[in-house]
Recover the amino acids of this structure.
């Protein structure tokens, strides 16, 4: 059973919806869907939050075997490194732009490359562990919002050329 299948199994046994679980662990519905479909592997801290929300012992989702835990750590580190390497090559300029804009709004992204995670520091100094996928989602959402606003501007403006 994969980590995602295990999360789904325990969630359904607790008669929780994905949305309810998302609210309990302070993540989006889409992120819970990604965890359950194995698109994203949650960090150990997130797994602990999920297990707390599902009222199960820590380690239950991983199967509580040392071999499985070791494999999880190894595959997670490799996967995070490859994701970061790939995203740095493909989206570095766009991601950097989003991070620079967040900085102008008073937020700060701290990359912990050795540990394979990122920290979002808020204006008040509080910090949250986030995934690279969160930054990519923010970039995509920003792009969609800008395209929407541009279409509104174009609709209300007078065309003067081609």
């Amino acid at each position: 059973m994969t980590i995602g299948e295990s999360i789904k199994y325990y969630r359904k046994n607790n008669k929780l919806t994905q949305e309810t679980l998302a609210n309990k662990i302070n993540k989006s519905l889409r992120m819970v869907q990604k965890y359950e479909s194995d698109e994203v592997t949650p960090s150990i801290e997130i797994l602990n939050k999920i297990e707390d929300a599902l009222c199960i012992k820590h380690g239950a989702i991983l199967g509580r075997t040392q071999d499985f835990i070791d494999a999880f750590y190894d595959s997670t580190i490799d996967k995070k490194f490859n994701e970061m390497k790939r995203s740095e090559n493909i989206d570095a300029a766009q991601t950097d732009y989003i991070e620079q804009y967040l900085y102008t709004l008073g937020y700060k992204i701290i990359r912990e490359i050795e540990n394979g995670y990122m920290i979002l520091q808020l204006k008040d100094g509080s910090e949250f562990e986030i995934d690279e996928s969160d930054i990519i989602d923010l970039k995509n959402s920003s792009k969609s919002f800008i395209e929407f606003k541009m279409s509104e501007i174009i609709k209300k403006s007078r065309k003067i050329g081609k």
